[in-house]
Each structure stands twice: as structure tokens, then as C-alpha cells.
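User: Before I run my own analysis I want an independent prediction to cross-check against. Here's the chain; please return only the C-alpha cells and, at the end, one sentence I can use as a sanity check.
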Amino acid sequence: MGEALAAGSPHPDNVVPALLGGAVLVIDIETDRTRGAFGRLELMRLPIPSGLRAVVASPDLELRTADARRALPATVPHGDAVFNAGRLALLVGAFFTGEIDRLAVAVADRLHQPYRIPLVRGFRDAEAAALGAGALAVGLSGSGPSMFAFARDSEADAVARALVAGWAEAGVTARATVSRV
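Assistant: C-alpha cells:
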């Protein structure tokens, strides 16, 4: 699978879940950066907790991936790396145990969101609206400007509407989609 992905995308962590669906951890364990190719990929499907929905909201904003990458520091503090590693462990655990109330803590980030969120006008307004409507967790999707929220089945549509309304308060039009994870 690694060779097929290398030909199609420099980001197997994005492509593999899109192809397989669901929540999939993807780790490239043998990258040869000198060739720009991927080595062997390790994949692990996570179980999807019952009653969990994903809401993805996209604002009518342009954020070039190159600009989002430039916003990241060249190095990160050790404490921030430890913070994110712990959150990933909690996220995986929450998916395996079904403890979706833990997702708010699990999606907290110190490696990319603090640097990229300022590039997304209205993010904080949309985030606050989504949390107020019952979102379990909210975060920046990849390099942005789209964002995601996790919500219970019963609250997912309200969270989607709230994301759009939150961006509208910031003068940004957006659309939101509710789907299975």
C-alpha cells in the first residue's frame, strides 16, 4: 500500500482514512525522505463508539496549505510533544471504550492548532457556538480552514447549525455536514 500511496499523495495519514473510511491510525515507519517515497505503513482501525457523529464545517475562506505550514514552528517544546502524545492515547482509549465524553480533552492540541487557528477568521466564534450546542469536542481539520466537531447523534444537527451560525457572526459564510465517523 505504501508504494501506491507514494505515487498519489504525500500524505498517507489523509489518504488511507479517506479510502478505508472510519477512524484509522496510519504510521509511516520506514520513510525514505531522500527519495520522497513512503516506506512501510502500519494501519490500525479504531472502533467507532456507538452514537457518535462527525460534523465537518467549511468556511468560505481560503487558507493555502503552504501558509498553514509556514505558521508552524521549526521545533516544538518537549512538554507540548508530551501533551499531544497523551491526548492521542486518550483519543484511542476513548474510541475503544466508547467513553465519548473524554473527547473534549483528547482533541486538545499544542502542536498545530495554536499556530494555525489565528489564520482562520471566525474559528473561535464557531467553536464556542458548537460547544454551546452540545459538541463533545471541536478542532481544526488538518491545516484548516475547515473544522470538525464530534457530537452525539441527537445533537449533531444542532452542532452543524451552530458552527454555521458562529461563523456567520464573524462575517463568514460556511456550510456543515453531519456524517458517521
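Sanity check: The chain has two domains: 1-46, 50-180.
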